[in-house]
Amino acid sequence: MKGGIQGMKVSQVSLILIGLVCTTVLVLAWTKTSFLTAFIPSQSRVLQLGLDEAGPGESFKGDNFSYQTRTQQVEQFASSGGIELADKREDIDIGKTTNKGENPSSVIKRWGSDDISEGKNKSSQVEIVLKNSSASESSVKREENGNLSATAINKESHPSVPEGTGSKEPSRVKNKSKESEIVSENSLSVGSSVEREQTVNLSATIGKKGCNYAKGKWVVDDNHPLYSGFGCKQWLSAMWACRLTQRKDFEYEKLRWQPQDCKIEEFTGPKFLQRMQDKTLAFVGDSLGRQQFQSLMCMVTGGEERADVLDVGREYGLVKARGAVRPDGWAYRFPITNTTILYYWSASLCDLEPINVSDPATNFAMHLDRPPAFLRRFLHKFDVLVLNTGHHWNRGKLNANRWVMYVGGVPNTNRKTADIAGAKNLTIHSIVKWVDSQLPLFPGLKAFFRSISPRHFFNGDWNTGGTCDNTTPLSGGKAVLKDDSSDPVAAHAVRGTNVKHLDITALSELRDEGHISRYSIKATPGMQDCLHWCLPGIPDAWNEILFAQL
Length: 550
Hints:
Blueprint: H1 10-30, H2 32-37, H3 43-46, H4 51-54, H5 67-81, E1 92-96, E2 109-110, E3 124-130, E4 138-144, E5 178-182, E6 216-220, E7 255-259, H6 269-275, E8 280-285, H7 287-301, E9 310-311, E10 329-334, E11 339-345, E12 351-354, E13 364-367, H8 373-378, E14 384-387, H9 395-401, E15 403-407, E16 410-411, H10 415-418, H11 420-438, E17 446-450, E18 479-480, H12 488-494, E19 500-502, H13 505-509, E20 515-517, E21 529-533, H14 538-548
Parallel strand pairs: 3-5, 8-11, 8-14, 13-15, 14-17, 17-19
Antiparallel strand pairs: 1-2, 1-5, 3-4, 6-7, 6-18, 9-10, 10-11, 12-13, 15-16, 20-21
Domain Trichome birefringence-like N-terminal: 210-263
Subcellular location: Membrane
Main location: membrane
């Protein structure tokens, strides 16, 4: 037999070649998954979305992209690729990296809390994490240089519900580094695309933790005033409606307060009512509190007559007593959203009770350390409480009202407390401490203590010829640059409590042209009012700041 391949028959060579081919086919069949996968792009690559497609430096054109539209696209994607949206859109979390190297998951807050903060965002990421994929965990990341604002979502309502509705509604969000994850529990098909809403809205930074609303400047805004001084006669006292007087200059109505570090959401009546649906807002304080109450009523109604608004003062005992000039307050309800706005007159925020009930000329015990009976009786019905006091704390007012200071249920004998400043300080701290102690009992209650509204009497006081004749807006400046409050008593009282400080003193000090001044309906000469404000006017800004924190 001849050796080597030359000695082999053709049939033998053919059998060997067939064996090699079969072996090769078997090997390829065994390794085909990894072999083919090497040539198929990963799902994360196929699903890469966002600003990378727009190119560097280009902003995402998503201003008009509604949450509803985005949700519909996600649902369409789910139906085609097998995604099941987790927990009916309730598992939308916001992870905020606070410190370098900190795990974002440690600071995740669930949408639906009231205290989601907003801030400036230099590099924001929106990440849709799609878990349980058949190949690998896929993620879609979108980065934007600029400001990212996440629209408030009512997690128990339809996605298209306007922002501001619901009692557990989150604020819009803008943070320096944030990631939002939509976690899905099933696999997805390759080649599908998902769109994620980014609503860039610089008008809203509600509830921004650390935003000093008192620091900023007055700016001209053609959208102001928010109502007509001529038209809001249903809610506005004529003596404060300067459009009804001889005053001719109204430039002061066009100014809006703009905080330095954040932007205030534009106020609208419908938006306020949606946010306050099934809720009650109560102002308790002096005549400046009453001005803020009337201002808000005009802002909510746009200064228009509203026959549908109900007078519900009787529910709170706010009825005119026999011989009284006016009731102790007013309460109105908007049936469309079951929203109630009320005011109760308590100039000192002390509990007042007659010392001798049988004597019509009796003095009144002014309990410096006891909240008004009205608050103790109705606090459980309130969702937002705004307190203020200040201008009745003088000896003349106390004597005229026959108020006698009491502490601990007995007449005060402490000389330091007997001083007006000491008595006022004790009362403010006492009322704030009491309200703070009640907040755990009423988790839905938000309480504010408004700082004192400044007076602008020049060349005398209210009863000694003091005047405020300036009609040029911002003649003394337009900005507040300091961080500290101009009302240190109020600022100190709320420190360390859950009662918020509605600090309006410094920004109002810049607006001496906005007072009633010498103007009146009858044009009769007399003392000038350099304490109260023309409406529309400065109290509108107080309410815009309040609205931003609801």
